[in-house]
Structure formats: C-alpha cells, structure tokens
C-alpha cells in the first residue's frame, strides 16, 4: 500500500481516534523515553563513559548478550523442529501441545523464575541428575541461558508455523519429482522459504531475552562479574539511589532495544513480502 | 518449467508419496525430541509450581493466600488491573480505528510506536518513570511540591503497568479490523446511523473476539508484570507490593511453600489465558471451515 495523504473516507472519527492515540503515546511512551534520554544527556560524557564501560558492567553486557544469543540459537533449532512437528505430523495431544507453546508468554516472569531455580537447583527435579555429572546450572551462567531459552521459546514456533502451514506442497513435490532427496528438498526448498520467518523469530527471542529480568534473577544467583545480567545492574543502581548510573546503563539498553526493533521490523517486512508473493 | 517432462515421472506412485514425507522412524524421533524439549521447558516449570504450592496440603496453601500481606498484594494487583486494562482497551480501540479504517502519512511509524513498549526492558521502563516523576526533573519536583507521591506509591505502579500492556489490545485489533474493511460501516452510515451507533452495533460485534483476546493477554501481563514494578514500587510490604513482588519477598525469605502458593494463582491465570486463546482460535477455525463448506 503506497503512502498517500489521508484518503477520503465517509467514516467519522479520524480526528478523535488519531488525536487520542497520538496524545496517549506522547504522554505515556515518548515523554518517559525522552525523560530518560534527556537525563542521561545532562551527565558529563566522562562520567557516562566511566559508568557504561566499567568492567562489572561490561561483564554484564557479555553475559546478557551472549546468553541471549545462545538462548535464541537453541530456540531457533528447537523452535523450527517444534513448528515442523506441529504442522506436519499428527499425534495424540497435538492441539494441547500447540496451545502450551504460549505458556512462557502467559506465565509471569517471577513465577517462571522461582520455578526454574527450583527445578535446576542441585536438589531439584532436574538439577539432581545433572549434578551427578558434575554440571551445575542454578547460580551459574548456564542457568541464565536456561531462563532466557524458556522465555524466548514461543517466538520462533509462532513465526514459522503460519509460513509452514501455507507453504504450497507443489514446491516440495516438484523438487522430489526432479530427483532431489528428501534432505536436499528440505535444505534447498523448505529452508529458504522459512528463512525470513526463522530469522524474525530468532531476532524477537533475542530482543526479548536481552531485556529480561524476572525469570533470570532467581536462577542466576547474581554473582558480580559472573552471573549479573545488565537489567539487574540497573535495578541494583536504582535501589542504591544511583539514578545517574542506572540511567546511563538504561540508555545503552534502550538504544540496543531500538536497534533490535528496527531490525525486527525490517525482517518482518521481508518475511511478509516473501510470504505473500507466493 | 520445460525440464519437468512426463518421461521423468516413471517412478512408482508409492515412491513419490514417500518423497515428500519422512520415513516413520524419522517422524517418530522428531516428534519424540520435540516433546521431550517441550516437556522439559513447558510442563516441568508448571508442575513444580503446583507441586510446591500443594505439597503441604490445601490448608497451608489457603493460609498463605489469605495471610494479610498476600491479601494486600492481591487487592493491589486487582486494583491496578482494573485501571490499566480498561485504559488500554480504550486506547486499543481508538488506535485500531485510526490505523485500520484510514490511510494517512506516517501510519507505519505510528504502528511501530504502538509496538515499542514490548521492545523496552521492563527495568528500563521502571527507571524511565522514576526519572520522569521522581525527584529528578521539573515534572517530578512539581508533583512532590504539590504533595503528589507517584513513585514508590500506587500511581507509579499503575503507570508502568499501563505502559507495559499498552500494545496488547491495539495489536490484536489492527489486523482484524484491516481484514474486515469498512464496507459494513459505510452501509450503516448510509442507512443513517450515527458514527457511535455504527461503532457499537457494527464494528464492535465484528471484532468482539479480538477484543476479548486482547483484554485477556493485557490482563495476564498486567497481573504478572515484575521488573518495571520492582523499580517503581519501593517494595513497601502490605502497601506497594503487587503479587509478583510478594512472591519474590517470600522466596527470598525462604518461605518456599508460601511463595509457590501465591505463584500458583498466577500460574493458574496463565493456564486460563492460553485455554481461552485456544478456544477462540478453535472457534475461528470452525467458522472458517463452515464458510468454506457453505461456498461449495
């Protein structure tokens, strides 16, 4: 749909609804964002840089972004598998499993947090078996990865499912007729079709994980330089009334979030364009 | 396309069918791996909450929920939800009407802005409101001078939750209303109905299920919001602790059974949310199938 000036319409309420929407967004969204950015801008550059490049903060970026990346990669692989299984195969309980995929969206993060730490602690249902192999998950960086995998789980499944469902069977049939093996068909025909959706889901899971707080802070144990995520440092600084420090790190997170949002929008645009062209 | 000649389709039919499917053992093992992954990440966390909540019996569970601090947290959460959800419902309806029924420049920017609260980390949301309305800027100072306490108080909690749940209804309604177009509204207006009447009697019934779904998601998120509330609430027990914050307090005090008992309420809410979602989707599917059959 091309950009035009507002098309003529007989429907009323354009001024009222658009006016209210813009007013609401300005007051509740743009004003707080501007307040944070303005507050940070008032900081001397040297102080800002000293705060955001402090070794403890840098370690938290590495953990937050690294664990989010690993979590999103796990979700990319297993999300694609789950979407495939749910769309292509029939098995008892499929509908229930399909519905349950949304659980991490609906489950409050604090509840997920205490559930995960209880499961993976060395006395927990899962932790006790893993402990026997000498691997610890709770209160380590592995625990952070587990929590971030949990909260990002639905994204890839939900972006890939509709594309897979609408994919024309002729594509795979043609490939098979031309002599491709099943593996070659999956790699050369199915995978390229799913690629935009896979990347969109991956980026969404990653973006969500980077900012996540509630489900991580219980299982991570919050050991300085080791298992502290960046959002935790913001909360810690705010609790010590160091709002300048919190705002500096918060601004870094905000800029990262905007960059990710732009990337996701671009991916979604690519994805829907590819999807509707067929 | 010329290359696909009929001479190539000499293989028996059975072979062709197998070529777009996986063999039975591949299929079974893929299903198996997917189910193990989901059991590990979806079922076990839910099960451990319920087990922890009811391990010591129903009486202990009930005692943890009616205990004064827990009851205060539940009351506060309900109060916040009763404000945040209607406000965002009105916003969602207005935004969806503007975006779905009209064409205007800057529309895609507006849609991106509506989605933005999902992209921002909850703790950054809390921080933004502390800086805006706490003792850090002209607005916050004015509020404090005039005796309004927003941060470390209920209004601050309401604001961050309104922020965090802003997109749900709008996001559900925009695609739905775009899909339905505006022909029915145009007929209603042509027949002499007023704009409001058209909205109440034509638009709203058409998007009823989208509204219900958006409200349910908005409600679940509002009750469960944690990171943003943790920053603005100040965690005053019995006063500014919402249910998720109360769970954290109990957990950090090693009152695990009580923590899980209160958590089981929110877990139940999450399950109800996805059940309603599935029912709405199932209903849509049935209607689509009925429509297809009707055409034939």
Quick recap:
The complex is a heterodimer of chains A (278) and B (296). Chain A has 13 helices and no strands.
What does this protein look like?
The complex is a heterodimer of chains A (278) and B (296). Chain A has 278 residues and is mainly α. Helix content of chain A is 77%, strand content 0%. Chain A contains 13 helices and no strands. The model of chain A has no long low-confidence stretch (mean pLDDT 91). Chain B has 296 residues and is an all-alpha fold. Chain B folds into two domains: 6-43, no CATH class; 57-295, MetI-like fold (Orthogonal Bundle), CATH 1.10.3720. In chain B, helix 4 crosses helix 8 and helix 4 runs parallel beside helix 9. Chain B is globular, with a radius of gyration of 26 Å. Chains A and B meet through helix 1, helix 3, helix 4, helix 5 and helix 6 of A and helix 2, helix 4, helix 5, helix 6 and helix 8 of B.
Poorly predicted regions of chain B are: 1-7, 9-17
**Count of alpha and pi helical runs of chain B:** 15
- Outline of chain A: globular
Count of individual beta strands of chain A: 0
CATH topology of the largest domain in chain B: MetI-like fold
Strand content of chain A: under 5%
Radius of gyration of chain B from CA coordinates: 26 Å
* H and E string of chain A: HHHHHHHHHHHHH
Specify the helix fraction band of chain A.
Answer: over 70%
Overall outline of chain B: globular
Give the fraction of residues assigned to helices of chain B: over 70%
């Amino acid at each position: 749909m091309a950009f035009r000036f507002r098309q003529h319409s007989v429907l009323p309420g354009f001024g009222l609804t658009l006016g209210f929407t813009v007013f609401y967004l300005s007051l509740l969204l743009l004003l707080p964002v501007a307040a944070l950015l303005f507050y940070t801008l008032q900081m001397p550059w040297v102080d800002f840089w000293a705060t955001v490049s402090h070794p403890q903060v840098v370690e938290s970026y590495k953990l937050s972004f690294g664990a989010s990346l690993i979590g999103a990669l796990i979700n990319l692989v297993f999300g694609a598998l789950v979407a495939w299984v749910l769309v292509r195969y029939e098995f008892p309980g499929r509908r229930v499993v399909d519905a349950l995929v949304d659980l991490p969206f609906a489950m409050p993060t604090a509840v997920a947090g205490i559930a995960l730490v209880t499961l993976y602690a060395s006395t927990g249902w899962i932790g006790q078996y893993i402990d026997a192999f000498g691997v610890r998950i709770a209160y380590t960086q592995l625990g952070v990865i587990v929590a971030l995998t949990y909260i990002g789980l639905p994204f890839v499944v939900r972006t890939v499912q509709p594309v897979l469902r609408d994919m024309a069977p002729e594509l795979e049939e043609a490939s098979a007729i031309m002599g491709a093996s099943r593996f070659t068909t999956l790699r050369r025909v199915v995978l390229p079709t799913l690629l935009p959706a896979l990347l969109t889901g991956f980026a969404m899971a990653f973006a969500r994980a980077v900012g996540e707080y509630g489900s991580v802070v219980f299982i991570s144990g919050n050991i300085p330089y080791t298992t502290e995520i960046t959002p935790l440092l913001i909360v810690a600084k705010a609790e010590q009334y160091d709002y300048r420090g919190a705002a500096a790190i918060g601004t870094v997170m905000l800029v990262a979030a905007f960059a990710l949002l732009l990337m996701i929008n671009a991916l979604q645009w690519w994805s829907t364009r590819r999807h509707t062209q067929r | 396309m010329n290359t696909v000649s009929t001479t190539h389709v000499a293989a028996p039919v059975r072979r062709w069918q197998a070529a777009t499917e996986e063999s039975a053992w591949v299929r079974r093992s893929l299903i198996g791996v997917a189910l193990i992954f989901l059991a590990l990440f979806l079922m076990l966390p839910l099960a451990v909450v319920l087990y922890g909540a009811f391990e010591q019996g129903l009486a202990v569970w009930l005692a943890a929920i009616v205990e004064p601090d827990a009851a205060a947290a539940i009351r506060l959460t309900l109060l916040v939800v009763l404000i945040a959800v209607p406000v965002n419902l009105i916003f969602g309806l207005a935004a969806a009407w503007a975006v779905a029924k009209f064409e205007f420049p800057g529309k895609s920017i507006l849609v991106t802005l509506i989605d933005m609260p999902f992209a921002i980390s909850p703790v950054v949301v809390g921080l933004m409101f502390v800086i805006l309305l706490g003792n850090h800027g002209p607005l916050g100072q004015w509020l404090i001078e005039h005796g309004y306490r927003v941060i470390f108080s209920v209004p601050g909690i309401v604001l961050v939750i309104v922020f965090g749940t802003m997109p749900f209804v709008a996001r559900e309604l925009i695609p739905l209303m775009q899909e339905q177009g505006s022909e029915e509204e145009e007929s209603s207006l042509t027949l002499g109905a007023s704009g409001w009447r058209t909205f109440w009697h034509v638009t709203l019934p058409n998007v009823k299920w989208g509204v219900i779904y958006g409200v349910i998601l908005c409600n679940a998120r509002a009750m469960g919001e944690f990171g943003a509330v943790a920053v603005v609430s100040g965690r005053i027990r019995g006063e500014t602790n919402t249910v998720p914050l109360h769970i954290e307090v109990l957990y950090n005090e090693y009152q695990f059974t009580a923590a899980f008992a209160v958590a089981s309420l929110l877990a139940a809410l999450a399950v109800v949310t996805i059940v309603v979602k599935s029912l709405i989707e199932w209903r849509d599917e049935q209607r689509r199938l009925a429509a297809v059959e009707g055409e034939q």
